[in-house]
Specification:
This protein is of the alpha/beta class. It has helices at residues 7-18, 35-47, 65-70, 75-85, 96-99, 119-122, 126-141, 153-165, 195-200, 202-215, 220-232; strands at 2-4, 24-29, 50-55, 89-92, 145-149, 171-175, 237-246, 262-270, 273-280. The strands form two sheets. It has a six-stranded parallel sheet, sandwiched between helices. Helix 7 (126-141) packs across helix 8 (153-165) and helix 10 packs antiparallel against helix 11. The longest helix is centred in the middle third of the chain and has 16 residues, at 126-141. The structure holds pantoate. The site of pantoate has 10 residues, from strand 2 and helix 7.
């Protein structure tokens, strides 16, 4: 399996293959790969001839230095996992200076307010950082398709908006959330939870499932209140936000419409680790 650190080396590898009707899929990651990432890579392998997996912890999307420093780095294990999956995978794992020769500051985008709510409210500048690196990777790899997990649903919608703003023709493919046996959404951060909290964190998904059921007959605001109450009485978890929003523009739901598409979003602290999840309603 090839692993390139320089943009020019990746491009020289990809350029000749693109001429032979080869399709290229891109799976952008920050490494510390888990089953959720591998599901994205497997889907990309089904739909493309070559799959580029980028492994790059993007400093521009972290608003807290502490969070960036704590981000797990498991490159040797990541490479082993990918190697075992297929010989059609190419890894791109650049240094920060390769992606940000002039300093790691995010570009400005007009995401139309998508970037201001939920994750954007609690992590200022985060989505500018995500947009910047994803735009750079898409322009470098020029993939036919790029794959993103629905766990970061707001990120997925922002990437969709960014490609339309920048007239990038890559198809953005959203893939379902992969969960641990107890229901916790897979995340590299789960490694930082104690074994008991990791099991107890099924509470987050159970709450979302119950909220989905309640939303059939109740308003968004009463479901939100109900979730808040449920967390008040739980000693292990601190709720940061619970929100119900429209799927495309992530607008708050004042009144439900018969044919509307809605999603519930949640962010919770457990053992000092920030966990996010969401569910289609
Ligand atoms: O979801 C992630 O891991 C990151 O936000 C991404 C898309 C790889 C950009 O750094």
């Amino acid at each position: 399996m090839y692993a390139f650190q320089l943009k020019k080396d990746l491009q020289s590898y990809l350029n000749p293959s693109k001429k032979h009707n080869t399709t290229v899929g891109l799976v952008p990651t920050m490494g510390a790969l888990h089953q959720g990432h591998l599901a994205l890579v497997s889907r990309a392998l089904e739909e493309n001839t070559i799959v580029v997996v980028s492994i790059f912890v993007n400093p521009a999307q972290f608003n807290k230095a502490e969070d960036l420093n704590k981000y797990p780095k498991t490159l040797a294990k990541d490479l082993e996992l990918l190697e075992a999956l297929s010989d059609r995978i190419v890894v791109f794992n650049p240094e920060v200076s390769e992606m940000y020769p002039k300093g790691s500051k995010g570009n400005s985008y007009d995401f139309g307010g998508l970037e201001k709510v939920m994750e954007g409210e609690f992590r200022p500048g985060h989505f500018e950082g995500v947009g910047t690196i994803v735009e750079a990777l898409l322009k470098l790899v020029l993939p036919d398709r790029a794959y993103f997990g629905e766990k970061d649903f707001q990120q997925l919608q922002i990437v969709r908006k960014m490609v339309s703003l920048k007239k990038i023709t890559t198809q953005i493919v959203g893939c379902p959330i992969v969960r641990e046996p107890h229901g916790l959404a897979m995340s590299s951060r789960n490694e930082r939870l104690s074994a008991s909290t990791r099991v107890a964190a099924s509470f987050i998904y159970e709450t979302l499932v119950a909220a989905k059921e309640a939303f059939r007959s109740k308003s968004a605001s009463s479901v939100i209140q109900w979730v808040k109450k449920r967390f008040e009485s739980h000693s292990l978890f601190t709720l940061e936000y619970i929100d119900i929003r429209t799927v495309k523009y992530l607008k708050p739901v004042k009144r439900k419409h018969k044919n509307g598409s809605y999603r519930a979003f949640i962010a919770v602290y457990a053992d000092g680790v920030r966990l996010i999840d969401n569910i289609a309603l």
